[in-house]
Amino acid sequence: MSGYILKRLLSMLPILAVVAVVVFMIVHLTPGDPAAVMLGDEAGEKEIAELRSQLGLDLPLAVQFFHWLANVLQGDLGKSYFSDVPVTQAFWEHLGPTVSVAILAQIIAILIAIPIGIMAARRRGTMIDQAVMGVSLFGISVPSFLLGLFLILLFAVQLKWLPVAGYKPLSSGLWNHLRYLILPALALGFMQAALIARMTRSSMLDIIADNYIKTARAKGLKERMVIYKHALRNACIPILTVIGETFGGLVTGAAVVETVFNIPGIGQLIISSVERRDYAVIQGTVLLITVTYVLLNLIIDLLYGIVDPRVRLNRKER
């Protein structure tokens, strides 16, 4: 197992290298100048040129890239041009709200999606199945920011049950923390629930048709045991895959929802950095998000062996 994990970690290096090159080039080729933004509209060309020289932005792109890459390999992602705070510090300061929203959204998605996916599979072709698939299609189609605005209008403005926007840390109390997360988590989790429900239905349909499920029913096992102990466990691998991918998408795709609900997470950090052309923060944050996404996929891959012993046997044979 340790050898397998090491191979997977080494396989991250080409991915991170490609991401580093692509992000660096996109950021630096996008119109805009951090020096001009920092000095404001009244700054002269001489002042801007001097600041660019201090920041190293007047060097050729290749030289800037290799300087940045050399620092990254030493664990230094640079500092923000505007706040003079290390990129890693800014990332960790904004990671908490994003992870809180993403975890709650994923919990909501799983609690909704897996039961209705199983129900749709058991009642294939019925009105219940068609309704579940229709809601899933709706969930995939509606943008999270639009759903978020509707949720604000209903639960915050009309019913006044929850706050319109903002964020409270866990230190302020669990319920106070959750009150500010429920609406953004619902907005994010609804789309994920739609994807997980469709995958659950598809996987369960494949398993339910197998002979060992028919044999279990013929032996007189209760339907609940057949579905949840035998069928669901063997259908878990594709479900775990889509859960892992959607959770990575929640972490990386929360920018719009965080803006709608004014949550000081990674999304807001990236958006504000793009507006100010804060190159170091953009590059470092995207690189750290990529590492997080790849590690999440590795964790999901390792969970396969817990759910299905055949996966562990295949890894040992390798």
Layout of secondary structure:
Layout lengths: L1 H28 L4 H6 L5 H11 L5 H13 L13 H36 L4 H15 L2 H15 L15 H6 L2 H27 L2 H8 L4 H12 L1 H17 L2 H6 L5 H11 L2 H29 L1 H9 L1
Helix pairs in contact: 1-15, 5-6, 5-9, 5-12, 5-14, 5-15, 6-9, 7-9, 9-12, 12-15, 14-15, 15-16
Task: Provide structural commentary.
With 318 residues, this protein is mainly α. Helix content is 78%, strand content 0%. The chain contains 16 helices and no strands. Helix 14 runs antiparallel to helix 15. It is globular. The N and C termini lie close together (10 Å). The mean pLDDT is 81.
Number of strands: 0
Gap from first CA to last CA = 10 Å
Residues in helices, as a percent range: over 70%
Given the C-alpha coordinates, what overall shape results? Answer: globular
- How do the SSEs run, as a string of H and E? HHHHHHHHHHHHHHHH
Proportion of residues in extended strands: under 5%
Task: List segments where confidence is low: pLDDT < 50 over at least 5 consecutive residues.
Answer: none
Average of pLDDT:
81
Structural class: mainly alpha
Give the biggest sheet.
none
Query: What is the tally of helical segments?
Result: 16
Give me the Rg, rounded: 24 Å
Q: How would you sum up this structure in a few lines?
A:
The protein is mainly alpha-helical.
